[in-house]
Write a structure and sequence with these properties.
This protein is mostly helical and 368 residues long. It contains 20 helices and two strands.
Length: 368
Amino acid sequence: MQQFLTQTGSNSSAATSPPASPQPRLRQQQAPRKERDPQNKEKEAPPAAMADEHQDLTRAFAGLGGLGVDETALVSALGRWRRQPEKRAQFRRGFLGFFSASAGAVAGIERCEDEYLLHLKAEFARFKDAAVLWAMHPWERDARWAHHVLHKAHPPQVLVEVACTRAADDLLGARRAYQALYHRSLEEDVAYRVRDANASLLVGLVSAYRYEGACVSEDLATEEAKALAAAVRSAPAAATKLVQNEQVVRVLATRSKPQLRATFRVYMELHGKPLEEDLAAEPCLREAVKCLDSPPKYFSEVISRAFSDDADRQAKAALTRVLVSRADTDMEDIKDAYARQYGAKLADAVAKNTHGHYKDALLAIIGK
């Protein structure tokens, strides 16, 4: 499903081919060590129950390399650690055969070992990589997704999602992870590898560090809604596509999300239809507007497409990507949006359209 797990960066120091008898470097999960805070006060170790959870999950992952995966333990951990990313961070720090704190220190993450990733796909086939992606640091996960899209010449949907639906600090973290993993900046690779009309918009989006406060200017929203409308009207006669319009790119790549939502609302009031409807001919621009306007609604539509009879491989892979990446942020909002748009519970749709341990894993991630 998520084929990027079997790929390593061209500049990565990790081996590019698996050893003849892959045996990942594992260390038995030890009792958590005491750490000191900035005031040199000792922090209490996690309770025994949490240590047992870590051991259960470590044993599940330690089956990689031909010993078999404890799938029941994995599904159980997915449910017990739902919306608790701090537990997964402690797991990564304690599982040195899979994650390397030193290798990811530059980015501030516990990085997956590239050599180990080469062996994951077969072992986790029945989970379609959901468990591995769930355990991975979110910044590294986004960086690997972006790298895969750029180097496999896939449509830029994932880049738009990462750039437009992540918090400012998380997008910055993904950019730092990208540099640590691939020794180039994300902006550099987007500028070099995207050769179509979407390049300027995508560079602007991935480079953004947006204001996240609640302040909104209604006057500015009106001014920029009119500017967007003027750009839409002039697009048919223009020599370039709307996505190359400097005014459009500037507004979408720099304004805060609350400010943009105010602008989109004014556009709707002035023209009687949402901006996204006027962007049907330019899918990258349309997806950016939808992601910036309402991520839950956008992601519910992505999930629905994954369930359609004519869904291609990438559309189906998006189901894992969306559910794993949004599990700790706005999953409840996505569930509400899905119910409003499609008249069904998301959990019921997942149960109907998936099977086996993959179904169990997804249901544990989203919560019934």
